[in-house]
Amino acid sequence: MFHRDSGYDTAYIGSSNLSNAALIDGVEWNVRLSRIATPSLLDRFESTFSTYWNDDPAFEEYLPDVHRDRLDDALRASAAGGTTDRATLSLSNLDVRPYPYQQAMLEELWAERSVHHRTKNLIVAATGTGKTVLAALDYRHLAEGDDQPPRLLFVAHRKEILDQSLRTFREVLGDANFGESWVGGARPERWNQVFASVQSITSYGVDKIPSGHFDIVIIDEFHHAEAATYRKVLGHLQPRELIGLTATPERADGVDVRAFFDGRIATELRLWDALGAQILCPFHYFGIADGTDLSRVTWARGCYDAAQLEQLYMGDDSRVRMVLAAIADKIVSPSSMRALGFCVSVAHAEYMADRFTSAGIRAVAVHGHTNPADRATAIADLRTRNVNVIFSVDVFNEGLDIPDVDTILMLRPTESATIFLQQLGRGLRSRPDKPVLTVLDFVGVQRDEFRWDRRIRSMTGLPRGKIIDAARNRFPYLPSGCRIVLDEQTQASVISNLKNQLAMRWPDMVSELRNIGDVPLSEYLDDTGLTLVDVLKSGKHRGSWAKLRRDAGLINSTPSEIEAHTLKRIKAFAHVDDGLRAHTYRSLLTTSELSYDTLDDQTRLLARMMHFSVWPSGGGYATFDAGLQALRADVTIQRDILDVIDVAFGDARHEAHPLDGSLSHLPLRVHARYSREEALAGLDLASFDFKPSSFMEGVKYVEHLNADALFISLQKTEKSFSPSTMYRDYPISRTLIHWQSQNKTSLRSPTGQRYVNGTSTILVFIRHTTSNELGPNPYTFLGPASLVSHEGERPISITWKLHREMPAEFFNEAKVAAG
User: Fold this and answer.
1) Which branch of life, at top level (predicted)?
2) What pLDDT score was predicted for residue 634?
3) Quick one: CA dihedral 616, 617, 619, 625, positive or negative?
C-alpha cells in the first residue's frame, strides 16, 4: 500500500511476490485499488495489515542500517539450505514465543486450572502441530515466580520422542542443562526434571518413587494410557498437575482417554487454526455419491451396524468400479499416489485390496490380525511407492506418522467427528513435495441420525447457523488452499440432512430425554451430544429446558402464570461465564432469607443484572425484591436458570478479572460476557426508571462513575446499521483498538473533550456480530482503555489501548469478524 500526501492512496493485492520472475514472467493475478475508486476496500486492507503488523511477533520492522547484516546472513543461510558461516545460534539466545493459536490454547488450559480448579487436563492436537512446545510453554508459565522450578516427570514410550522433547524444553526455557534422560541406560541424578520412558519406570519400579515427588507429570501420546504399564504409573503417582498429550482421544478399541480427565478436553487445536497457521497440509475434500442407501441399515448406540455395512459394500463390484473411476478422475497419477483407505471390516479391507490389485493399483490390507513385521513392510512399501494403497480397519486411526500420505479414501461412514478428524489427520502432515492432501469420501444416503453438521463443523469451524448456507454456496470461506467439493447428489443429500439435524426435531429430543430420565441439563447434553442452542433456541413447540422436560413427562405440575413468558428468557443466561455471577445468581435464587434491601451494594447490582436478564422492561414489578420472590416461588423457572448457568459456566474457557481503583465495587469482570441489560445494570444504570430495553445506542456516559461505556459490534451489516453508523471499528492488536465516535461528536463537544483529554474512564464492550441463534449476541467486556491517538472529527477516529490484553482466542476471532 502506498500512502500519498495528496490523499490518492493506492494498494496492490494479489499473488505476486516482489521478484522479477513473479512480476515480469509469471502468470499472476493482482488488482490495483485506489482511495478514490474503492475507499472501503482500502480501509479494510489497512485495518487487516495493521492487525497483523501490530500483533504478530513474526513481523519486524526492517531498518537497513540496523538489520542489513542479519538479513544478508539469513539470505545466505536460505541459499545454503539452512546453514550459515556464522556461529550457530546458541540455546540461550532462543526466544520461543507461542503462535496466536498456541496462546489461545494456553489461556484455555490456564482457565481450566484457575477458573474450574481442574488439576488433570488433556491437550489434543494433531501430530506435528507442537503439543510438546505447548507443554513446555505451560511449564514455563507454571514455573514463573517460583524459587525452585516445579519437579517434572515427562513420560513417553520411545527414546526418539524423549530426546526431542528434552531438546524442546531446553529451547523454550533457555537452559541447556535443563532436565535429565531416563531411557536407554541413562539414569537421572538430580531427579528434578526427568524425561523417562515408561519401560524405564516400570523396570525400576514405580513404587520406589514417592507418590508426591513430582509436581507435574506429562504423559505424551496419552492414548497409550490404557496399557497396564501406564495405568500402574498413573495409579501410583499423585502430582499437583497431570497433563496428557494426544492426537487421538478416541482409540480404535473404543477406549476414550477423556475418561481419565472427567470426560473433558482442556484445550484442542482445531483443524482450521492449524491450517490457517500453515502447520498442516491443505486438503481437497470430495464428497462423492456412491449409490448406496444406508437409510435401512440398523442404527444402534450411535453408529451403523458393521455387519450390514460389510454386506452392502461387498455385495457386488459396482461400488469398487465407482471408487476406481473417482480415483482416475481426481488423482493425477494413481500409480504414484500414497493412500490410506478406511474400511468397515477386515473382510472389506482385504476385499478392497484384492480388487485394487486386480485393477493394476498396488494395494495391501492391514488390520489388527496383521503381524508387526508385515505391517512395517506395508508402511515402508507405501513410502517408497511399492504399494499405492493400504486398506485398514481402524488400525491407522491413531499412532501413525507417515507425512508421505497424500490421499485418503473414506470407504465407510464414520459417525464420530473425532475419529473422522483422526482419519483425516493421517494425511495432513506437511512435506515440501506434497502441495495438498486429496480426500475422497464415498457417501451414501444416510439415516437422519447421521450428523453431517458435526463433520462439516470439524473441518471448517463454521457456526451451526452458517453451515447450510456454506453447503449451498460450495464452502467459499475455507483456510488458504483448502476445498470442499460435493457432487450434486451428495450436496442435496447433505443439505437435507443438515436441515433435519440443525432443526433438531423436538420429538426426537423429547424421546431421548424420556429414555435417559430426569437428569441435569449438563448430563443430558453430554449423553446426546446436543448443545445449549439445540435446547434453548426458539421455535414452534420448543425453546426451553422446562418445555423439554414437561413434554417428556418429567414435570407433572401445571405451568404457572409467569412461566410461559419467563422461560423464553432463560436463554439470556447461556453466556454466564464468570464465577462471581454464576455463584451469586445461584445464591439469590436458592436462599430465601436474602432480601434485596439487605444485600451489599455489589450483590444488589448483580440482583438487578439477573432481574433485567429475565425482564428487560422490568416485568411489571414495583421492586427488585418482588422479582426475586417470583423467581424463587417457581421451582420450574428456578431449575431452568440454574441448569443453564451450570452448563454455561462449566464451559468457560478464560479467566475473568475484577476491576480495580474507583471501579472495584462494580460486579463486572474483565473478559466476561454480558448482555446489554447486564452491562447497564452492572454499571449501576439500569433501574425501573431507566429500563435497559429502551437503550439502543453504542455509547453511554455514566455520570456517577465518570465513565464512557463503548458498545462495539465489529461485523456491521446494512441490515443492522444505517450508512451513518457503519463506523470503522476493529482490533489492531491484543491491546490496541481502532474506534470511531458517533458522527455528531466534534472535538470541542463535552464528549469529544472527555475522549481526547482522558478526563473519563473508557470502558470497552465488544462483540463480533450483533446476533446468534439465541438472539442478540452478548458483549465481551475488555475493561478500561486509555487514549493513544486521535484523528479528525464527526466522527473522531481514535486508537485506544486496553489496560489488559484481550484473550487470544477472542482476538483471533475478532480479526476475522472485522476483516
Assistant:
1) Bacteria
2) 92
3) positive
> Quick count: other Cβ atoms within 10 Å of Cβ 622?
9
User: Does 571 reside within a domain?
Assistant: yes
Specify whether 364 is located in the same domain as 461.
yes
My answer on whether 411 and 384 are in the same domain is yes
State the pairing for strand pair 216-219/241-246.
parallel
On the question of pLDDT at 320 being above 80, the answer is yes
Query: Counting Cβ atoms within 10 Å, is residue 22 exposed (0-12), middle (13-18) or buried (19+)?
Result: middle
Over the stretch 166-221, which tens digit does the pLDDT of each residue have?
999 999 999 989 999 999 889 999 999 999 999 999 999 999 999 999 999 999 98
On whether residue 55 sits in a domain, the answer given is: no
Q: Where in the sequence is the domain holding 262, given as residue range(s)?
A: 100-269
Average pLDDT value over all residues in the chain = 88
Q: 293 and 249 share a domain?
A: no
Q: Which residue blocks in 683-800 are alpha helix, DSSP H?
A: 750-757
Q: How far apart are CA 646 and CA 742, in angstroms?
A: 39
Q: What are phi and psi of 409, to 5 degrees?
A: -110, 115
Q: How far apart are CA 608 and CA 615, in angstroms?
A: 10
637 with 766, same domain: the answer is no
115, 122, 225, 644 from 258: Cα distances, Å: 20, 7, 11, 23
Residues 311 and 437 in one domain: yes
Q: Reduce the DSSP state of residue 89 to 3 states and report it.
A: coil
- Of the three residues 655, 670, 686, the one that is the final residue of a domain is 655
Q: Let me know if residue 146 belongs to a domain.
A: yes
pLDDT at 42: 80
* CATH (domain of 175): 3.40.50.300
Q: 642: alpha, beta or left, given left = phi > 0 and alpha = psi -120 to 50? A: alpha
**Integer angstrom CA distances of residue 556 from 517, 546, 549:** 14, 11, 9
* Domain end (from 450, 467, 502): 502
The helix (run of H) or strand (run of E) holding residue 14 is: strand 10-14
Each residue's pLDDT tens digit, 324-349? 999 999 999 999 999 999 999 999 99
CA–CA distance, 430 with 790 (Å, rounded to integer): 45
User: 266 near 112, Cβ under 8 Å?
Assistant: yes
Q: For residues 451 and 302, state if they share a domain.
A: yes
pTM above threshold 0.70: yes
The answer on pLDDT for 89 being more than 50 is: no
Question: Is the model's pLDDT at 18 over the cut of 80?
Answer: no
| Whole-number Å distance between alpha carbons of 107 and 658 | 17
In angstroms, rounded to a whole number, what is the distance separating the alpha carbons of residues 801 and 565?
42
Say yes or no: 231 and 296 in one domain: no
Residue 614: all three cell numbers together? 429475565
* Cα gap 491→336, rounded to integer Å: 30
336 and 471 both lie in a single domain:
yes
Q: Is residue 605 part of a domain?
A: yes
Of 33-37, 424-428, 578-582, 781-785, the least confident: 33-37
Model confidence at 56, pLDDT cuts 50, 70, 90, reads low
CA atoms within 13 A on the CB side of 758: 10
Host H or E run for residue 285: strand 283-293
Query: For residues 726 and 43, what is the distance between their CA atoms, to the nearest angstrom?
Result: 12
Number of domains in the chain: 4
Residues β-bridged to residue 245: 123
- The proportion of the chain whose per-residue pLDDT surpasses 70, expressed as a percent, equals 90
Q: Is 371 left (phi over 0), alpha (psi -120 to 50) or beta?
A: beta
Residue 113 contacts residue 119 (beta carbons within 8 Å): yes
The torsion angle over the Cα atoms of residues 427, 429, 433 and 438, rounded to 10 degrees, is 30
Contact 698, 656 (CB under 8 A): no
Which run of H or E residues covers position 678?
helix 676-682
Cβ atoms within 10 A of the Cβ of 97, count? Answer: 10
> SS3 string of 385-427?
CCCCEEEECCHHHCCCCCCCCCEEEECCCCCCHHHHHHHHHCC
Residue 88: the pLDDT is 35
